[in-house]
Every structure is written in structure tokens, then in C-alpha cells.
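Chain A, query sequence.
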Amino acid sequence: MKLKTLWLIIPLLVLAIIPMAGCGGNPTMDVLDKFIAAEDLMFSTGDGSGLLAVEGENIVIHMMGWPDTVGSAAHVAAIQGIVAGATAPITHTWSEKTATGDIASVRWVETDKVGDNYVSYQGCYFLKVKDGKIIEAWLISDMLTYFLAIGLVQYTTS
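Chain A, predicted structure.
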């Protein structure tokens, strides 16, 4: 009788302990993975459905040197404008993904064609997640590299 009880209790303990030990997955990382897939879909096809699904309706996106973008629909519209004006596909390489608590981060390298030249520059996203949706984002981009490559900014060495 004791042996039967032990065989019944052990699986129940395992089912209770695994989620408490953090082996049950990372919901914030799951949202980050959905965001990356949604960004790739948006930039490659113009389909914003993935972003609309993973971002909160009233998301606030902070960008250095630019006004905040408020709302997922505004974010989708902004990217649609960028894609429409592009002369070649805009691609991203994603790396250094992390997620702890309700904050996720990811580094990216974006490649775009400006005139006859391909330009790559990098940046990162910091995302705040609540109830499975991104409610706030900070976008930090190395725009100097981009502006130098397209000739908007010039410098001389002495």
C-alpha cells in the first residue's frame, strides 16, 4: 500500500515542482520570439497581423531622437511606410535575446539598400511585457552609421 501511494505522489510532486523551478518555460521570451517573427513578417511582406497580435493596442514605443509612437496600429503604419519607400528588401539579423521577469531585450542588425549601396546598422529593443503583450518598447538604433553611409552626415579626420 505504501509503495502504491509513493508511486502516485512522486508524479504529482514532479508536476508541481517543475513549474516552480523555472523549467516550465519563459513567457516573456515567448513574447519576444513572437515579436521577432512578427517584425520579420512585417518587413518582408507588409503583413502587420503578427505585430497587432503581440503588441498591446496602446503600446508606447520610445525611439532616441524621434517622437514616441503610440499604438500598435501606428507602429504597423510606420513600418508599412518604411517598406513602401525601400528600394530593396529590408532584412534583420537577431541575436543576444534575453528575458527576465517582464523585460525582454534583443540586438538586431538591419540591412537596407540606399541608392546603389547596402547599408547595415545595429540597434536593440527593450520590451516590457504584461499579460502576454508588449506594452512598452525602447528602440535604440545606431543611426550615425546609417547617416554616414547615406551621406547625410559627413566628418573629416585631421
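Residues 25-150 form a domain with the Nuclear Transport Factor 2; Chain: A, fold (CATH 3.10.450.50). DSSP finds five helices and six strands in the chain.
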